[in-house]
């Protein structure tokens, strides 16, 4: 009876150990799947981060070009404004001269 009891305990232990091994294997497989998914997610994140950095560089270049274009436009406008003011002064001087001639007549 003692032997039968020991055999029963041994059988229960083997069954339990077998279940634990199956559970362990399932957990290990699941862990591998999750690790693969994590690696893929990290790769995707790294690619997206690089894309973001590349886009930031492009945006900065576009902003710089826009700034230079605006500055060029403002400089040209300023030059035209100075030219028009000079022409206006010339015309005002001419009008004044003509008025003096009229008054002299």
Descriptive overview:
By secondary structure, the protein is mostly helical. Helices cover 98% and strands 0% of the residues. It contains one helix and no strands. The radius of gyration is 45 Å and the shape is rod-shaped. The termini are far apart. The model has no long low-confidence stretch (mean pLDDT 88).
> What is the number of helical segments per DSSP (H or I, 4+ residues)?
1
Structural class: mainly alpha
Q: What is the approximate shape?
A: rod-shaped
Low-confidence segments, ≥5 residues, pLDDT <50? none
Strand content: under 5%
End-to-end gap? 151 Å
Multimerization state: single chain
Which bin fits the share of residues in helices? Answer: over 70%
